[in-house]
Design a protein that fits this description.
Number of helices of chain B: 14
Helix content of chain B: over 70%
Oligomer: heterodimer
Radius of gyration of chain A: 19 Å
Shape of chain B: globular
Shape of chain A: globular
Radius of gyration of chain B: 23 Å
Structural class of chain B: mainly alpha
Number of strands of chain B: 0
Order of helices and strands of chain B: HHHHHHHHHHHHHH
CATH architecture of chain A: Orthogonal Bundle
CATH class of chain A: Mainly Alpha
Strand content of chain B: under 5%
Number of helices of chain A: 13
Strand content of chain A: under 5%
Largest sheet of chain A: 2 strands, antiparallel
Number of domains of chain A: 1
Distance between the termini of chain A: 37 Å
Distance between the termini of chain B: 28 Å
């Protein structure tokens, strides 16, 4: 039982929730704009690969983050052009992009680094962990919150920022209005197209950070199809919270915590496959609870 | 979705439409292949040569063609499974998982049950199909009864299926002995009596191909000629209208979902009984996902699935031979396939309209205030 509240479990839960959180915050914008976005997965994977490239060539994780974000934005732009301007089906484009990104990153891995499958390279520099001066010495809390990866704190700050953008900025308001009533947005003399693009690009930006965390959040390696469904899990977090930032954040944290707990349970002899399965099962359970709650609330 | 405009007997116009449509496919494929070619040349290989190797490997000779038909079989079945759902507005992205469940159960029946003659094969096929249907039951019920999004659930269940089958085989069938490498986590071989007859022994092409083609034709007639099929189509296009017309949207949606899972399970059973002869963990990444791309290329027309599936067989088999004969990884072809679909979603009409608008803007001096970028008040 004590493993549940073990500071190490909580700390690794927070860490594991970061990629899901970033991607879910991005997916929240597209959800608010009424775009069903399963391409989160491909944006994350694209960014994961290019962040490794950036980190390798400039030996700086920040360069990795930049390149990862740029790559993810380009992929998001492709998604936007096809679905907004050409009216292509979002699910078909999403699946094609996910398969395409898987293939493209695998080939680029081979072309640029000469390896297949995965890349372990001393040139890949991860983001460092940092201690928070005062908090560090607080018992329990210090062990959970301090000493995390830089991106973890960046994720927390981003979550707050996203809340403000979504609820206290014109752009956020308009994106939400677009999802609820596109005609109203048009009547107000605004371009729905523009705000749909903005939502998708914001999503690209945040998925860029999500993807960067996968290789540069401490692992310092890239492997083929590294996102492994995390984009879909993030989408579930978005649907659970129905686009409300607080709920989306909470769902992401729970997913991360569950994953950390499952990894811990492995130490107690729980079979590997069941451990790996748990985030996906939990996602379904959460989606069920979230939807039921929403239905109950009318 | 379904694209069969009725009426307008003016054949010239129709021929024109068909030609435009065909041109779209050719252009999309060429664009995809061009980008693929660039990737191939980065690898230091000649793209023309690589594509030639691909074509020869897929169509040059008896063995090559047999192997192409072998790969066309799961493509047709997975494409069909996806199409059945899409036509009814059910986004079953879990064909991959249903395929795994079908494969696993078919293998189970194939090696552990003794039945005389063809009965064994039919029982194993049927069990596999039912396993796929059963596996689609959960997301179907959650969607139809509780309104839970089926896309996320089916995607999650794909991962659960990979891991669950691996777990069961490793712990209950291999008694946790032996390797932890997925492809070495295998069931025993199935009995001879459960195997699908080969079309041209010793090559792997098997009667699964006929099952797929026959099923595609059946599904076509189902949608074309039966009341249920017609109602399903309406449900897929306009659920509110269907409900208004007295169609039980819920019941039909369930039916389509489960039928989709059934065919997905069958696809897996055919893979095992026809080709692999035993179930190996993580034996077929992405056969199910290919179904989504195939359904789109076939415009959700069950008959269209057959040629697209054959084309997929050519690409898949050709890609393997390209990988053997050159230094190019076969995954290049996965990128070409994805790009083909992405380029195809680009609507040529929209491009023409954009160009026209741009020309019009450039042609005339624009009056101040006369242009709204998006015709909002019209």
């Amino acid at each position: 039982m004590e493993v549940l509240f073990d500071p190490a479990t909580l700390a690794s839960g927070i860490k594991l929730s970061v990629p899901i959180l970033f991607a879910a915050l991005g997916g929240m914008f597209t959800h608010q704009a009424n775009v069903f976005n399963i391409a989160l997965e491909s944006l994350m994977l694209t960014s994961a690969f290019f962040s490794v490239v950036g980190s390798c060539y400039f030996s700086s994780p920040w360069a990795g983050l930049m390149l990862g974000i740029v790559a993810s934005l380009v992929a998001a732009l492709v998604f936007a052009v096809l679905t907004v301007d050409f009216g292509a089906d979002v699910i078909v484009v999403g699946i094609a992009m996910n398969l395409g990104a898987w293939g493209a990153t695998s080939i680029l891995l081979e072309l640029m680094f000469g390896v297949r499958g995965f890349l372990l390279d001393p040139r890949i520099v991860s983001f460092p962990s940092v201690e928070i001066p005062v908090v560090k010495s607080v018992p329990y809390l210090g062990q959970v919150v301090s000493g995390q990866n830089v991106l973890v704190y960046l994720a927390a700050a981003t979550a707050v920022a996203v809340h403000f953008v979504s609820y206290h900025s014109k752009m956020g308001l308009r994106i939400r209005a677009l999802g609820q009533n596109p005609a109203a947005v048009e009547t107000a003399g605004l371009s729905p197209r523009r705000y749909r693009y903005l939502a998708i690009l914001l999503c690209g930006l945040l998925c860029g950070a999500a993807g960067t965390f996968l290789p540069l959040g401490g692992l310092s390696m890239f492997s083929e199809n590294m996102s492994a469904g995390k984009g879909y899990i993030a989408l579930a977090a978005v649907l659970f919270g129905n686009g409300v930032p607080g709920l989306v954040i909470a769902a992401s944290l729970v997913f991360g915590y569950a994953e950390a707990l499952a990894v811990k349970m492995q130490g107690f002899g729980l079979p590997n496959q069941l451990v790996l399965m748990s985030p996906y099962v939990l996602t379904m359970l959460f989606l069920f609870i979230g939807t039921r709650r929403r239905v109950a609330a009318g | 979705m379904g694209d069969r405009s009725v009426g307008n007997p003016r054949t010239a116009k129709m021929r024109n439409a068909v030609l435009t449509e065909a041109a779209k496919y050719v252009v999309a494929l060429l664009l995809g292949m061009t980008i693929g070619g660039v990737l191939i040349s980065f690898k230091g290989e000649d793209p023309v040569f690589a594509y030639k190797v691909l074509l020869e490997g897929a169509l040059g000779g008896r063995a090559a063609i047999a192997q192409t038909l072998r790969w066309a079989t799961p493509a047709i079945l997975a494409g069909l499974a996806t199409t059945i759902g899409f036509r009814a507005g059910v986004f079953n992205l879990g064909v991959e998982g249903q395929l795994y469940m079908g494969a696993f159960v078919a293998a189970l029946v194939g090696y552990s049950v003794a039945l005389p003659g063809r009965a064994h094969m039919i029982a194993a096929l049927g069990a596999g199909a039912l396993a796929g249907a059963a596996y689609s039951l959960l997301p179907a019920v959650l969607w139809m009864r509780y309104g839970i999004n089926e896309v996320v659930n089916t995607l999650m269940l794909n991962y659960v299926a990979y891991l669950l089958t691996e777990y069961v085989v490793r712990v209950f069938i291999m008694s946790s002995s032996g390797s932890v490498v997925p492809l070495q986590i295998v069931t025993p071989e199935i009995a001879e009596s459960a195997r699908l007859p080969l079309l041209f022994p010793p090559y792997q092409a098997n009667v699964g191909l006929f099952i797929g083609v026959l099923l595609a034709i059946l599904v076509y007639f189902f949608f074309q000629r039966t009341v249920w099929g017609y109602e399903l189509d309406i449900v897929g296009r306009n659920p509110a209208f269907a409900a208004y017309g007295g169609v039980s949207v819920r019941r039909l949606g369930m039916l389509a979902f489960i039928a989709s899972g059934l065919v997905g399970g069958l696809a897996g059973a055919v893979e095992i009984l026809g080709v692999h002869h035993k179930f190996a963990a993580q034996f077929s990444i992405n056969l199910g996902f290919d179904g989504v791309l195939i359904a789109l290329l076939a415009k959700n027309d069950p008959l269209g699935i057959i040629p697209v599936g054959l084309f997929w067989g050519i690409l898949r088999n050709g890609a393997y031979s390209m990988e053997r004969m050159t230094s190019v990884s076969r995954i290049v072809i996965q990128v070409v396939q994805a790009l083909f679909v992405l380029f195809l979603t680009v609507d040529a009409g929209v491009i023409r309209q954009m160009l026209r608008r741009r020309r019009a803007l450039r042609g005339k001096p624009v009056q101040k205030g006369a242009t709204t970028t998006h015709g909002s008040l019209v």
